Amino acid sequence: MSAVSDQSTASTGTSGASGTGASYAAAGVDIEAGDRAVELMKEWVKKTQRPEVLGGLGGFAGLFDASALKRYERPLLASATDGVGTKVDVARQLGVFDTIGHDLVAMVMDDIVVCGAEPLFMTDYICVGKVHPERVAAIVKGIAEGCVLAGCALVGGETAEHPGLLGEDDFDVAGAGTGVVEADRLLGPDRIRTGDTVIAMAASGLHSNGYSLVRHVLLKQAGLSLEAHVDDLGRTLGEELLEPTKIYSLDCLALTRTTDVHAFSHITGGGLAANLARVIPDGLHATVDRSTWTPAPVFDLVGRTGSVERLELEKTLNMGVGMMAIVPEESTDVALATLADRGVEAWVAGEITERGEHPTGAELVGDYAR
User: Fold this and answer.
1) How far does CA 195 lie from the centroid of its chain?
2) DSSP state at residue 4
3) What is the pLDDT of residues 105-128, one digit of tens each?
4) Can you give the residue ranges of the PurM-like N-terminal domain (predicted)?
5) Distance CA 102, CA 231 (A)
6) Which residues of 286-305 are buried (b: 16+ CB within 10 A; e: fewer)?
7) Where are the alpha helices (DSSP H) in the chain?
8) How does DSSP assign 111-172, residue by residue?
């Protein structure tokens, strides 16, 4: 987001510089393009600022006033880092760069909120084969918009130009975030009890996991065009695949203020059962009933087109559930009402029981509703 990496020592930023000696520009690195990208992204970064953020773009580090944490008795910092995976190739092919940032923020900040932490700030890393200022600025615009939705600040980052390693149109994005939670409000397995309710929150689509499978099946095997309209989807394939990942951070925090939430599970790589099992303590078991929801058509499209078995789909894709909350049974109605008030589609999907003979911490049962 800030300076283009390794360019502060370059003597020129344009490939048309005079002289016959080697130069950074001749090697493919354009400093002036990097500077232009920074100028274009400034207005979007400014929109993410929280009162604790000090300084602006151009520094070597982002600054966050930690005195804001004095209101906590025992603040625990939560951190996470992630990327968007091969979804970036769909964005590259379509030339759409202002949505991929939402995916990045969701992957990072929704991991952080799982333990009950409030997202505070985030940094990004954008690696490109060639700096196209407007393209880089569009990526940062998406990241900034995502940060606003997550309630966090974008305090710094890096745009790295890697000619010779990446093609001119190739790029990748990654990010890291930090949040804070009061120690006695930390959520997780220790809070879960027999009889708790498992609440599912609807996904906006595929989110940002399983795209290697999706691209292999739909684009390579079936030869579908990203620009082709797909009747089952009601839009083009590209529009479906680029649907931004829903960001649940503020919705989850709202839930912690109105109900006694015991745990959250962010449904990402590995699928629903595997991610839910990560927060289920030894001795207990989560049963999720598939009949409580109908996965969006894109999941059936992938499965049917590639003859992908259901269990393979379920361990790769989110199947329509992006986040799960585990709450006491008596808090179920309040939890659903809170999410409904925030416009989040949610439903009771399962329950917590004694593990008994169950070999794993979570499993899906039944058939999906049609």
Assistant:
1) 30
2) B
3) 999 999 999 999 999 999 999 999
4) 73-181
5) 26
6) bbbbbebbebbebbebbbee
7) 31-46, 87-94, 100-112, 133-150, 211-214, 237-241, 249-258, 271-277, 297-306, 310-314, 332-341
8) HHGGGTPEEEEEEEEEEESS--HHHHHHHHHHHHHHHHHHT-EEEEEEEEE-BTTB-TT-EE
